[in-house]
From TrEMBL, chains A, B, C, D:
Signal peptide range: 1-21
Molecular-function GO term, any one: acyltransferase activity, transferring groups other than amino-acyl groups
Highest taxon listed in the record's lineage: Bacteria
Keywords, in A-Z order: Signal
The protein, known as: Enterochelin esterase-like enzyme
Database matches in Pfam families: Esterase (PF00756)
Length: 289, 289, 289, 289
């Protein structure tokens, strides 16, 4: 009886004080996808006080690279420790961070050229609505951002360049900037699925959707300032050329963008160093001056 | 013995979790208002340990500016992070912070000239009693303060100048100081509601209630020291004239007041910098020397 | 003999190491003035390394207040300690600081209405050329600044408003802003020299030369940005009105200026706090971005 | 006994003065040049204890940009404060810093196409020997570095790419990377001296000497690692294209190089931030591991 009393006392105490008000990370959640005909996994970071409070939060979609999955930013990226610290120090403002799996079934953030695997459609038509329905997010563009590394940096580029109405900030890190031309597009598709034949029209359409340089050149004048860009790629990264050319192309096109080259290569050490800056940069849109 | 076991268990549990009863913010609460004939939203900040403790707290009413609502100080003002930090560092003493919505329905903190929309009456007759009934506030003047920015700085001025018996401290930031004369009053009312006609008496009464300079000149001798004032307006703020004239008028009238002009404009950056000073200043009244 | 040996050794050692490379202050120098028909005193601060190096330096003219003389900023203002610290911390860039006596003979920085005592002429025609000839100053406007407190704040205003071609920065602290109108001008002149009669034309000319508000209103459009202004006056200063009106007048006239009101009165505590900010502000002109 | 007295006297004197043999800067020295048929100015930074010690030092040639002269790094670049601090904190090792004037007579660090103005020859045949004869420098490649900004970044590139036997480190900041092709070369020469006619051979030879991309492509295999490179150019710099292409070209050519893009433009603020990193980077060659 005394035991029961004390257990209840503990429970009340903890509940009453909002004791477990620390941030939380779940890395094995899932949602059903009709588009991808399967359950899809995602990880989520909920900021300190998320459950105790009733306020709503901005949301960052944070994309992993090739060979990784929804657990990458959690395990290797130390997202919880880094976000907790950035929020506690006031360098960024609390937000929800969503990390979807783009590895299972087929790798990548794109719809394939034949629209048989439509990951991008899943992202916009199923994942985003699911998050905004099931978590207390602020559902306006201003309070939504996208970031990612390597293949996820490519996803960040293509999503925000083609859907500037959805994201206030986009932060590609060490980004794969897509095929440089039609030949490279063909070769890439061939390597991914040797058994599939694509028409020239399919290849060209895919190239135009996935080449970051093509997408930059296609930005209409009235959308040049639609997204706040923060682009970062180490000086020892093998993706130096695409990122340098993106910097030149955006300059010539007069698309405002922050661009950084720090010391380092294509490594988690680089991305963990970059993450607090990314969180701070996107908070500047969530904030108001 | 079992009791001892559980006491130790609790102690270990709390120690192990690094228990901190964190502050909480709710940004979507509401109360029913007969005066405004609708539910009215408000946000509230409850200090660390609020729920675990049984003590009562001072309360600050913190007013948002035009175009914002009860979430402004939460999202853009970083009230939770800033208040937590100020309390943790001992620069201010824990208090409850109430942030009501003055945007929905009709914008502003005033009763309109025809007393059809009576926000001020709602504030004093419904909101304050609701807060003091439903939260553990100290219901004396000494432990009650009001602050706000821009339009909310105007609300701070008018509320505290006309109700000096209710607030020990008042802190208008980058305040709108109301109409300068009757013509400006007419023009402002016209712009807000072109379809309404006001009598000269209505305009004049409204002017006398909303002009901060008029209210200062009307302060009776025995009320000059009734409220502690902290007034702050950036040197790049477009509201420079009203605030400079308030400084001169209060000096000539010998109303004690702290006055600050820092570097900056009409921005959240300015108000986030000011907030810790405001919390510290009003705490000096909650304290005892 | 041994004594001689060691004296030489010390001398060589000190000379060779540039050991006495600390900053120096002389507070009792003088130059001959034909205009004022007497020797005039001044104090000077020479930055660390001044003598050892052969480089040239920017120069700040730093004016004392009424009742003080060239030793004021040295003794009460702690100019050496404060400047040394600001330069060592990199908050300001090394400069020469000249502090002339405007107390002896007749008080103030102006020519009198009858041009019998011509301190302003002495300043520009004798003091400045003397300094630039005898010290390694950079003799361009860009590298010349003026600052001062109270009466010296008034001198700062009048000198820089009427000679914008000479100063890149001007920093009046707790400034006397001159007479508000002709009556006040007459009264001031009467109080200073009861025995002298002035014609109306003399009074008006003097008023137009010494009233800061008049001088601001007379600034031609192409000179509005000729001088960088940093104006600071405490919220408890008795000179609150003139300084607040200067802020309003410069805003309306669209003359860019930094304006600050900190906590404090007409005290050396206030000016010692302000001095590092002044040194930093004027260094921004000596620097290049 | 007298000896003892004087030894104590010295000790007290030195202790009392807080003796630090400070660094020195001279910004108005000159050397005679037969090649340029005139005296040429230079500034020099001598590290703390230079004169007291008898040791020799590494030397950095630090080049100014277009429109500036030998005083630029002293006044705007704060070379003394920044170098003192870097050495005191152990982030770099003491060195002599030489800043020659490349503005007087004709602007730039190159020989002109007709070899009538031979600044580069002056630099290598007169300035460097003069410095190494008159100051205690270590005259080996290992202890010699070159750095510079804008036009001086171009000088850094061309000098170190063509004379890799002379410099262990080269640090071009916000560098002008020279003409992109023959047409641009012709246009640049025309703009500088409209009255002079150049033969095609002269233009091509000049282009190959001044185009950084051409020089990179011409680096022989056995010289790829001859110089340690630290290249830095802000993301808002108008020289973004040349520097980004240099990064790509050096990568493809497998020339090891540190490359940085920080936040900022073509400003002294950027270069003052970069200078400590430059001093640290070149010190790594002066050091031994």
């Amino acid at each position: 009886m005394k035991k029961t009393f004390w257990m209840i006392a503990i429970a009340l105490l903890l509940a009453g004080q909002g004791v477990v008000a620390q941030s939380k990370v779940y890395d094995n959640l899932s949602l059903p996808s009709k588009i991808l005909k399967s359950d899809r996994k995602f990880a989520i970071y909920l900021p300190p006080n998320y459950e105790a409070s009733q306020r709503s939060y901005p949301v960052l979609y944070l994309l992993h690279g090739a060979g990784d999955d929804q657990t990458g930013w959690v395990q290797f990226g130390e997202v919880q420790h880094i976000a907790d610290k950035a929020f506690a120090e006031g360098k960024a403002t609390p937000m929800i961070i969503v990390m979807p799996d783009a590895n299972t079934g087929q790798r990548g953030y794109a719809n394939d050229p034949k629209n048989e695997w439509r990951y991008e459609d899943f992202f916009f038509q199923e994942l985003m609505p699911y998050i905004e329905k099931n978590y207390r997010t602020k559902p306006e563009k201003r309070f939504r951002a996208v970031a990612g590394l390597s293949m996820g940096g490519g996803g960040t580029f293509t999503y925000a360049l083609r859907r500037p109405e959805l994201f206030s900030s986009a932060c590609p890190l060490s980004a794969a900037t897509g095929p440089m031309n039609l030949e490279m597009t063909k070769a890439t598709l061939k390597r991914a699925k040797p058994e599939v034949e694509y028409t020239d029209a399919e290849v060209e359409a895919y190239y135009k959707r996935q080449s970051v340089l093509e997408l930059i050149n296609a930005v209409p004048d009235d959308k040049k300032k639609a997204v706040r860009w923060y682009i970062d790629c180490g000086d020892d990264d093998f993706l130096y050329e695409g990122n340098s050319l993106v910097h030149i192309a955006m300059k010539k096109k007069e698309i405002p963008h922050e661009f950084r080259i720090h010391d380092g290569g294509h490594t988690w050490t680089y991305w963990r160093r970059a993450l607090p800056e990314v969180l701070g940069f996107i908070s500047d849109a969530f904030h108001q001056y």
